[in-house]
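User: Hi! I'm working on a homework problem where we have to compare a predicted structure to a textbook description. Could you give me the structure for the chain below?
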Amino acid sequence: MVNNSKEVQVKLMKGLLDLIVLQFLSSQPMHGYQIITKVRKTFGVYFGPSTIYPLLNALEKKGYVKSEWNMNSERPRKVYKLTSEGQSLLNFTEDSLNFICRKIGTQRLPKGGLGEENAPQPALRPFLKKIEEKPVLKL
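Assistant: Happy to help. Predicted C-alpha cells:
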C-alpha cells in the first residue's frame, strides 16, 4: 500500500508540477534550484534539473513566467518571476482544481469532512490546504 500511495503522489505531482511552480513563484521570484529544493521539502518528491528547467523554459515561452539574470549573488543565477498572465492561469487552474476536488469530495467523503482514515497523505496536505482556501468555481 505504501508503494501505491507514493506512486499516486508522484503521478499527481507530475501532472500538477506547472501549477505548483507557478504557486511558488506567486509568493516570490526564485531560481531553479530553489524550486527543486522547495518541491522536495514541501512534497517529499524529487524532480531534478532535467524536469524543472525545461518546465520553466516552457512556462516562459508561453508568457507565464519571466526570467532575468541576477549578477549580484556569488554566482550568476537566472531568477524566474510570475507574470500577470501566469497569475491569471494560476487563479483559473486553482479554481478548476478546487471545483474538481469538491465534486469528488462531495460524492466520496462524509459531510463532516476528512476523517483520519480518509485524510490526504502528508505530501499533499499543503497543496490541498491551499486549494480549500480558494472559493469554489461556479459553472
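For your comparison, note the following. The domain at 2-133 is CATH 1.10.10.10 (Arc Repressor Mutant, subunit A). The chain has five helices and three strands. Good luck with the assignment!
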